[in-house]
């Protein structure tokens, strides 16, 4: 005689708890506190870059970029060779600060998210190259004060106005910090576009891929001691279209996944007016008159 087997009890949330993702603290990588961030800021405002580390790394990376990534640098004549400079660039990859560094013969200082400074060795390496942490998502006045100090002594700072890496697709929308920094220091702003670094990294593998970087003409703004938020936003709105123009000139609107549209549709204010689009062809009489007037 067959015996009825008791059916198993249905699984409940108590019997089968959901896995909880491990935090950085549980993994042994606690976030750095404000005192540690200030110490890293003090290194770049006081000692600057570590010259041995910086020039050894540059001596390796620059030939590597030219051979492995077939790096093309466009507009280097627009980069000032002396004095304070703000490089305002789009952000696609962790390689962007190093690629932008190839545009200038001077050391470039750049902000990086504080999460990158958790590991002691990585913290020392990045800080030796001129990186200092920023607390993203908060109004990090310490990072902005450090950037101002670097510019006031006549050095260069790289700013990513998007605030984070933007991929795939086109470039994102900027935050107003770059406009405030330009007004508070009076430093010229060089618009920079980096293209191709999105496709370089796949997991931990660095793949060969063509990388392009283009610099536009420097933009200058009046020096304002305490600019308002609205004024900082207006200056940022003047800077970012110039970054977008460099991006479109490198073909970013057509080659990056998620875009594939005319840049005029992305920023109609950058499109030429109707009179520039539909100029009629000159008649024969007009052409003869033009030639005769030479």
From TrEMBL:
Give the catalysed reaction(s), semicolon-separated.
a 1-acyl-sn-glycero-3-phosphate + an acyl-CoA = a 1,2-diacyl-sn-glycero-3-phosphate + CoA
- EC numbers, comma separated: 2.3.1.51
**UniProt keyword list:** Acyltransferase, Lipid biosynthesis, Lipid metabolism, Phospholipid biosynthesis, Phospholipid metabolism, Transferase
Question: Cross-referenced SUPFAM superfamilies, in alphabetical order?
Answer: Glycerol-3-phosphate (1)-acyltransferase
Q: Which domain of life is it from?
A: Bacteria
Q: Where is this region: Disordered?
A: 1-26, 264-294
Give a yes or no for keyword Acyltransferase in this entry. Answer: yes
Keyword GTP-binding belongs to the record:
no
Question: Which GO MF term does the entry hold, naming one?
Answer: acyltransferase activity
Q: Where is the Phospholipid/glycerol acyltransferase domain?
A: 85-197
Family designation:
Belongs to the 1-acyl-sn-glycerol-3-phosphate acyltransferase family.
The domain comment in this protein's record states: The HXXXXD motif is essential for acyltransferase activity and may constitute the binding site for the phosphate moiety of the glycerol-3-phosphate.
Q: Quote the protein name from its UniProt record.
A: 1-acyl-sn-glycerol-3-phosphate acyltransferase
Question: What is the originating organism of this protein?
Answer: Patulibacter brassicae
Q: Which lineage ranks, top first, belong to the organism behind this chain?
A: Bacteria, Bacillati, Actinomycetota, Thermoleophilia, Solirubrobacterales
């Amino acid at each position: 005689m067959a015996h009825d087997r008791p059916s198993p009890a249905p699984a409940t949330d108590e019997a089968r708890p959901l896995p909880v993702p491990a935090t950085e603290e549980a993994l042994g990588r606690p976030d750095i506190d404000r005192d540690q961030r200030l110490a890293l800021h003090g290194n770049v405002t006081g000692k600057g870059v570590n010259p041995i580390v910086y020039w050894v790394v540059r001596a390796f990376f620059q030939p590597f970029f030219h051979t492995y990534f077939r790096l093309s640098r466009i507009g280097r004549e627009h980069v000032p060779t002396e004095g304070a400079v703000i490089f305002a660039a789009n952000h696609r990859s962790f390689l962007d600060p190093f690629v932008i560094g190839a545009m200038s013969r001077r050391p470039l200082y750049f902000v990086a998210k504080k999460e990158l400074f958790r590991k002691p060795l990585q913290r020392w390496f990045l800080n030796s190259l001129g990186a200092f942490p920023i607390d993203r998502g908060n109004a990090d006045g310490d990072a902005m004060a450090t950037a101002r100090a670097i510019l006031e002594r006549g050095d260069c700072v790289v700013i990513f106005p998007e605030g984070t890496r933007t991929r795939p697709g086109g470039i994102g929308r900027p935050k107003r910090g770059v406009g405030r920094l330009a007004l508070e220091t009076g430093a010229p702003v060089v618009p920079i576009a980096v293209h191709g670094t999105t496709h370089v990294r796949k997991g931990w593998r660095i793949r060969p891929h063509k990388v392009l970087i283009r610099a536009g003409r420097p933009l200058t703004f009046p020096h304002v001691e305490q600019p308002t938020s609205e004024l900082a936003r207006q200056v940022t709105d003047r800077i970012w279209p110039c970054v977008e123009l460099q991006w479109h000139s490198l073909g970013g609107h057509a080659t990056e996944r998620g875009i594939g549209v005319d840049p005029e549709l992305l920023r109609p204010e950058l499109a030429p007016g109707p009179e520039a689009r539909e100029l009629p062809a000159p008649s024969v009489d007009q052409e003869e008159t033009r030639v005769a007037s030479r």
